[in-house]
Amino acid sequence: MARLLVIAGSDSSAGAGIQADLKTAQAFGVYAQTAITAVTVQDTRGVHGVETISAPGVKRQIEAALGDIGADAIKIGMLGNGPIATAVADVLEKVDLPLVLDPVLVSSSDRVLLDDRGVEIMKSRLLPCAFLVTPNWPECEALTGILPENDLELEKATKALLQLGARNLLIKGGHGEGDTVRDVLIEENGQISIFESPRQQTRHTHGTGCVLSTAIACGLAQGKSLIDSVRLAHDFVQHAIKTAPGLGSGNGPLNLSSSQS
Predict the structure, then answer these.
(1) Residues with catalytic annotation?
(2) Cβ–Cβ contacts within 10 Å for residue 136, how many?
(3) What pTM did the predictor assign?
(4) Which of 131, 215, 221, 249 could form a disulfide with 2 if both were Cys (CB 3.0 to 4.6 A apart)?
């Protein structure tokens, strides 16, 4: 069985974060271990509180996971603060595994999930470690100062991220407008692939970024190519949105049933 290590925060509503990561890995038939960086108090209406784990505690979780069961790929989500980001970088700079970095910076309810020092560590140490970075438009803007709202700005943002050391990029288009959602994969060999789907008019999209990045990491852990991993993950998320259970009064969770994969 393919093995995945997820380094991220917990979501008490189980729609995003570690809980959604575990459900996604289960759907793909991948064994997932976790290193929890923070415990969040949240529901479908937003993030109401965050309690970070100590940096040494996060580091020990990663070392325990890799030292025993091991991993075929790693996914990073919410880090929380600079000391945690530093501890994660200290371990992963010595690890040769495909790493998917989802740069979780701010929640959909505008709660800051990574402090300024953490962002600097992400840019200087974690982006160069990553095999794939999966920013959405606001995260692109936070990392580069460029909002990729058109092809010209997308090219500028891509160049800026590559200059920071990123190898492969998946620029997610969920924050755009129009009838089509477009995710753009830029590979280190220069190949560009576009994944498009009709935009679904629904409020039930909680955790889409977490699920997408974890699904890609599952594909990589199973030995699939990057483009195949992204394609399967993109389709998985679209189906998960379409069949969402309709829970909560706010931004509801997806359907992460294993039956759809």
Answers:
(1) 172, 205, 207-210
(2) 24
(3) 0.96
(4) 221
